[in-house]
Specification:
The chain has a four-stranded antiparallel sheet, with helices on one face. Strand 2 and strand 3 form a beta hairpin. Helix 1 runs antiparallel to helix 2. The chain has two helices and four strands. The two termini are 24 Å apart. The radius of gyration is 14 Å and the shape is globular. With 96 residues, it is an alpha+beta fold.
Length: 96
């Protein structure tokens, strides 16, 4: 299923900037960045639960927030992209 993950991490302190880097790193491990604090993740429910657990351990719930948008399996009909930063085909072959 496709899940859109967005986050807002308070970066007024060094600890906040560290949390921001950790959150972004975790999201990069599971999906592709489509905006500064927005990731598209094509992920199964077990991996999503793992990612959510990791992210929610990193953030400070008094200062930061994360949103999960569940796009489901028919997500291609719900996403329209215009402009720069073309996305990769998450279901295509990955060449390393």
């Amino acid at each position: 299923m496709m899940v859109l993950i967005t986050y807002d991490v308070n970066t007024e302190t060094a600890d906040g900037r560290k949390r921001l880097r950790k959150v972004a790193k975790q999201c990069q491990n599971y999906g592709q960045r489509v905006q500064n604090s927005v990731f598209e993740c094509l992920i199964d429910p077990a991996l999503l639960a793992q990612l959510q657990h990791r992210l929610e351990e990193i953030i400070d719930e008094e200062k930061d927030s994360i949103r999960y948008y569940y796009m489901g399996n028919n997500w291609k009909n719900q996403v329209k992209h215009v402009g720069a930063k073309k996305s990769i085909d998450l279901e295509g072959t990955l060449l390393v």
